Structures are given as structure tokens and as C-alpha cells.
Amino acid sequence: MKQPLVGANALKQAFPQMPVGEEFQGFFDSSATKGDRFAVLVIRIDDFDRTLKQLGEDITSGVVVRLARIIDGLSKTRSIEWGRLDQKRFACFCPDTDEEASVQLAKEIQRRLALVGEETVSVGVAVHPFWPFEKMTILDNAQKALDHAVFFGPNTVTPFDAVSLNISADKLYQYGDIDGAIEEFRRALAVDLQNVNVRNSLGVCYGVQGKLDLAIDAFETAIRLDPEDVMATYNLGLAHFKQGDGQKALSLFLKAHSLDGDNPEVAYQIAVCYREKDQTEAALEYLAKAAQNTRKGGHIFQALGECYLEKEMLKEAAKAYEKAIRHNPTDPKSLSDLGHLYGALGENMEIAIVLCRESTRIDPNNGLYRYRLGKLYLQSKDYENALEQLKMAAELGEDCSDLIREIVNRERK
To answer: What is the pTM of this model?
Structure first.
């Protein structure tokens, strides 16, 4: 059963005609259809959940009622129709009101609330006309503006703009709705054609969808608007890398590095390009830079370990893999590589077995991981477990025949 809103009974007694939830949505739909010029304010009580938890329902209900009385009081002298959207939010529909006047109204609500208590509200504002949006989208736009207000902290007033749409699109992207994010980014460009961040984000979405030509076009446009934008330059490099043009990608990554020498992902991608060209020394140089600046770079330390392995610098490789595992303790490749290295160095054999055993638990169908674990058991003279793992590795395609034969012959003696 749905719980009643905090303060619902008190509001019902004080304002029996106040529309709530879907009732306000219906009121808005009807009013917007008739209006040629209007504003919508969505007002959220800041820190509502904390107030409810710390001070209880009675005090929080008082806050809700105070805010409602302030809005109602203003509606006596202004053209305002208002209601409650949900637990934390009220909304105002203001006919014949432009953005400047609606912002001033929002600030007046904040000012009056400050006179009677310590609570604050944040307000999102949207107006019609606002090209290219239809009337019926304005309430939704005001709510997006309110989401935008979060970035400025409590007690803020935020008009709807391209950044509001960018934030909305980012949320859709995080939820996995790439198509929805693309549409929202396109709407943001309709509002602000010169917005570099929107262009870059749109390109990222196209890249996720594998539409690399569209992604490249978006990134190139962003760079034309701002030649020193690091992320657009870096993302353009990634798009070319995915298309197989490593040389073009490398030149873009190097340019991005010249713009921001402390970005670990840029340095990492430079190293990836150099490794593809078999230039291990150059790759090591940039991986070392990336490692110095990363806070969550398991993949960076893994690549560093691989480069050290290529140069047969086993102790350095082991140290790199140790850091890779600290950053990502469930990565089976780093676990297996480090266990294999410990075995090659003849050090920490018990830990080596634990690491390789964990890699096979995480990825049980990887023949190489089974092979390495089997070799460690053999190295530790645990022939029964060694034979078991090597047979499983052989079933998964690894050539273990010599080692299996060695163990079988040993057991026959």
C-alpha cells in the first residue's frame, strides 16, 4: 500500500483544492494547451530525507506546510496556480510570465522561507515559448532544470538550458539508454549549437553504438569549436583507433597529451599505440607517466607489467602486477600473470598457487590459466593437482602433453 505524503493531512485541511501528483500533471496539461506564454517552477525542499530522518515526520510536515503557505500567499497577488508533485516537490504554473520574472518569483519564495526557518529550497525554471520545445514539455523541462540545480548546491535557482539537457542525457547514458541520451543531446544542440561538451558527449554515444563515422564528425566539430578541448581530441583518437588507423590515433593522443600531460588515460592510449608498433621502450615511458597519475588504473599497471615481461624484467613486472591487483582484485589475467611470475622467480610459491587458483575460479574455461596453475603444482611437487589442472588445460586447447607425460611416468616409477 502506498504511503501517504508527509504533511498530506495538514495540506488537505489547509488547501482542499490543491492538485497533487497526477492531478497537477492533468492541470498542467489543460492549462498549457490554452496558454501562449507561461512559466513553470518546480520547487524542491533541500535535504528533505535528512530532515525527515533526523527531526521526524511532525517537524518535516511543518516545513512542507510552511512552504505551501508561502506559495499560496504569493498566489494572492500574482498569477500563480500551484500544487504538489510528490514528497519533496511543489510546482507553480505562471501564465504570461517570462524567465526573468519567474526567476525573481523563485528567489522571493526562497527569501520568504528564510524568514521563518532554516530550511531552503532549490528551484528549476522553464518557460514557453522556448524553441524548439512544445508547450507540453515545459513541466518536464523545469524538472530537468531542477536536476541541473543539484550541481550548484542547495538554495539555488536554475533556468532550463542546454546544460540541463546535457545532465539529463548523461543520466540516460548511465542507465544504458543510449538512444534516449542521443535524442537528449540533439535537443541540447538545438538550444546551443556551439556547446563543445554536448558535441563530445554525443560523439561518445555514437562510439558506443559503433557508429564511428558519426562519432568522428561530432568530435571533429567539437575540436573546431575548441581546438584545445582535451577530451574531444582524445575521443577522436579512440574513434580512429577503433577504425584501425593507429597512426592517426597516435597523433591525436600525442596532441591530447600536449594539452594535458597529467591525464593517465591519454598516456595509456599512447602506450597502447606504441605497443602495437612494437616500440616497447616508448610504451614504457608513457605507461610510467600514466601510473604516476592514476588512482584507479588496474589496466594501466597490467599493461606496464606486460611491457616489463616483454623486456624480461621479471621483478619489475611482478611489482606492476601487484599494483594492478590492488586496483582490480578480481581481474583473472593479472592474478594469473602474477602467479606465473612468482613461479618463474621461485618466490612466494604458496601465494602464486592461490593467485592462479583464483584466476581459474573467475575464468574456469581459460586453458592458459589452468596450464599455469598446473605448472605451479608441478613445481611444488603436488603431482595429483598438477595432473588434474593440466588435463583440464589440455581439454581447453593448451598443449600440455609433455608435462602430463612427465607426471604419468613419474607415478609409474
So the answer is: 0.86
